[in-house]
Structure formats: C-alpha cells, structure tokens
Amino acid sequence: MHMFSPCISILLQPTRREFACSLSSLLTLSTSDGKTATPTTTPLVLDGRDYANIDDVDPRNNEYNPRHGTKLQLRSVASNAHSNHGLLGPMAKYPDPILRQTASPVTKFDDPDLDFVVDLLLGGMKTNSTTALQYGIDARIVILRGPASPLPFGKPLVLINPNVLSRSSEDKMVSWIEYCGDIPVAVDQEGTAKPLEVELLRDEVVEVAAQDIRGLPIRKALGGEAARAFQHELDHLDGLLIIDHSGLDELPKSIAREEAPHHAARQRRAFERRVYQGNGPLYW
Q1: pLDDT tens digits along 59-82
Q2: Phi, psi (rounded to 5 degrees) for 14
Q3: How far is 232 from 241, CA to CA, in rounded Å?
Q4: Are 141 and 104 in contact (CB under 8 A)?
Q5: Which residues of the chain have pLDDT under 50?
Q6: What is the pTM of this model?
Q7: Which backbone phi and psi does 34 adopt, to 5 degrees?
Q8: pLDDT, tens digit, 9 for 90 and up, residues 33-60
Q9: Which residues pair with 142 in a beta bridge?
Q10: Residue 118 in 3-state DSSP?
Q11: Residue 181 near residue 7, CB atoms below 8 Å
Q12: How many CB atoms lie within 10 A of CB 78?
C-alpha cells in the first residue's frame, strides 16, 4: 500500500487562471515512492449522499462535521520543547483557529529547543511536507522530504523563515489537484476514504531564501513537486488553506458556510503571488 505524499497532488496541464476547467481527463497522481496511480472519478459520498452537497456528518463515524475540529493551543518553540511530554502532539483539524494564524519568525538559533522541535517534526510527520504551525507551534518552519525535497535521495530539507525571492511567470503556472491532512476526508461509494480535493494553480518555479537550523542562509530554486509542496506549506505559515483557492460553490456546503464571511479576502491573499520586497528581515 502506498503512502500518498503530503497533500495529495495531481499534476494537470498548465491552464489560464480559472477554475472552471474540466476534471474528466486522465490525471497523474504523485505517490511517495515516485510511482503513479490513476485517481477515481467516483463521486464522493457520505451515507449515499454526494459529498459536495453534504451538510453535517456524524463524527462518531469519523466523518466530517465542521463543529468537531481541533482547538489546539498555540505554543512557542521553547514551550513545546519543555511541555507535551516530549511529544509532537496532534495535527490541527479544520476549522481549528490555529490554521488561520500567521506563524512568527524564528529569531533564536543554535538553540537546543529549536533542535528538539525540528527533530519532533521530522520524527512525527507522516507526509512528505509539513509546517510547525500545523502542530500548534508558533514558528515559521517548513520541512520537505521524499518527493517534496529537492535534495539527493529525498533527504529532508528544513527551511526556517522562508521567503519567496522570485517566481516563474504567471503564464507558466501549473494546475494541480491537492488535498491537505488538516481538511477532512469523505468516503466514496466503495467505502474508500477520499480527501477533499481542490484544483488550484501553483507557480512552476519559485526561488526561496530561508535559514537552516543554525541560522545560516539557504537559497534554493524549487520546481515540480518541491515547488508545489513548498507553496502549499508557505500558505499554511500565512494562515491560508487549499479551500481559499476554490470557489465557495465548489466546496461542501458545511465548509462553504464556515468560510463565507472571510472567503473573498482570503482568496485575494491566496492569489497574490507575493515575493520578498525588503519589507522585513530576509534572515533573522
């Protein structure tokens, strides 16, 4: 059985910046071992109902109800290192308010607490990319590994305080289908758990500046799965989710109701394609 990569991603052909394109064509699904699989086109249903029209689902069946997300407490790096019994703790589940926080920069390096937290993330992450914020840790830390890492043999890459220095041109944006571990799953007609998938556009290449665990500068040009995964995780650090890239009418009714008051503002931020412009320290 394959473990799917972080936020499952399906690569489509580049399209114009619109979200009305068809999903009926054959897509390629990235898996953690580099192989491919063909996604099902079976409608997502819960208890025989179309997932796109679902309202609330009984949480006793481990299915989605937006009133039953986590409510993690936001902790500093030091606080997490000295509490929680040395464990990473649970990942936030939508609509946990922590998922809408903007993570704070890391300002203390050569720090045993930072080393400990990064080790926790590396040991506890079950996907190929993650952030500290998703586990309630207030720190701008992204980790890429496996197919999401640009390093040889998929060696983990720790990016602290990452910024985008440049992006490939907008006409080269690549269309993906993504899901996220923070967003609930549904069950299809065959009883298989399926993620809430969102079609969105990511920049083909991003040049990234960040720091390593010692505070030393890192610069990387990321493409392919590494670029996609990094942009997904950078969204998390800024309180954005894949659902912000979607139209409300494309989301399950329960999520659309939850998102409606703030969706327009969040979608504007998701589409901004920001780059570093000297409006803060590049390296802390």
Answers
A1: 333 344 555 689 999 999 999 998
A2: -55, 140
A3: 8
A4: no
A5: 1-6, 8, 13-64
A6: 0.79
A7: 85, -5
A8: 333 333 333 333 333 333 333 333 333 3
A9: 131, 159
A10: helix
A11: yes
A12: 15
